[in-house]
Amino acid sequence: EPEVTQTPSHQVTQMGQEVILRCVPISNHLYFYWYRQILGQKVEFLVSFYNNEISEKSEIFDDQFSVERPDGSNFTLKIRSTKLEDSAMYFCASLNRGGDTEAFFGQGTRLTVV
Amino acid sequence: GESVGLHLPTLSVQEGDNSIINCAYSNSASDYFIWYKQESGKGPQFIIDIRSNMDKRQGQRVTVLLNKTVKHLSLQIAATQPGDSAVYFCAESGSSNTGKLIFGQGTTLQVKP
């Protein structure tokens, strides 16, 4: 069964450092997403990406965040200068079309900022 | 703003019993709803979905009910098994057409053997 894969599974970084979280969406999917989940809390939408551009972003997704699909397979989330409050699980998801179809989620990257 | 909430943080049931997990949503324009299951250390896993033009949909051992009048969604799990122990999230797609999901807080389902 096709799946969304994310690397690394766990990333520890010092405050102020840049991190890049990587995702390989399902190959025939066209819509890509990043979500985050702070420990014990709900999953929160960060950004959606379609046709090589951001289609929607949340208030959380400020100038410290960026996304990129550099090579047609990988989908990355970059945090330029990490803060302690960026510590969370980050999930990548993909859809084969927008609207009312199920999104497939990756296993997540646990980001710990120290 | 849009919000999706869950009535109870934890539900404990006996193995073999039926489970009902509830969810309230606030955006009356929402037209698509999904239930996800999240096991510890894993990403959300799709369980079942329903469109706003339906009030009930059944899957294998699961049923989703939608009451648009009171903006309420529920997930029923028949003959609950230990493997059903997880956190369950309802989510809505809201009025956005980008496919983003708005998640509720989550209900932890504990199945006692």
Q: Can you describe this structure?
A:
The complex is a heterodimer of chains A (114) and B (113). By secondary structure, chain A is an all-beta fold. Chain A has no helices and 11 strands. In chain A, the strands form 2 sheets. In chain A, strands 2, 4, 5, 6, 9, 10 and 11 form a 7-stranded mixed β-sheet that branches. A 4-stranded antiparallel β-sheet of chain A has the order 1-3-8-7, with no helix packed on it. Chain B is mainly beta. Chain B contains no helices and 11 strands. In chain B, strands 2, 4, 5, 9, 10 and 11 form a 6-stranded mixed β-sheet that branches. In chain B, strand 7 and strand 8 (72-77) form a beta hairpin. Chain B is globular. The model of chain B has no long low-confidence stretch (mean pLDDT 90). The interface between A and B is medium-sized, with 28 and 26 residues.
Blueprint of the fold:
The complex is a heterodimer of chains A (114) and B (113).
Chain A (H helix, E strand, L loop, with lengths): L4 E3 L2 E4 L5 E6 L6 E7 L5 E8 L2 E5 L7 E4 L6 E5 L8 E8 L8 E2 L3 E5 L1
Parallel strand pairs in A: 2-11
Antiparallel strand pairs in A: 1-3, 3-8, 4-5, 4-9, 5-6, 7-8, 9-10, 9-11
Chain B lengths: L3 E3 L3 E5 L4 E7 L6 E7 L6 E7 L4 E3 L3 E6 L4 E6 L8 E7 L9 E2 L3 E6 L1
Parallel strand pairs in B: 2-11
Antiparallel strand pairs in B: 1-3, 3-8, 4-5, 4-9, 6-7, 7-8, 9-10, 9-11
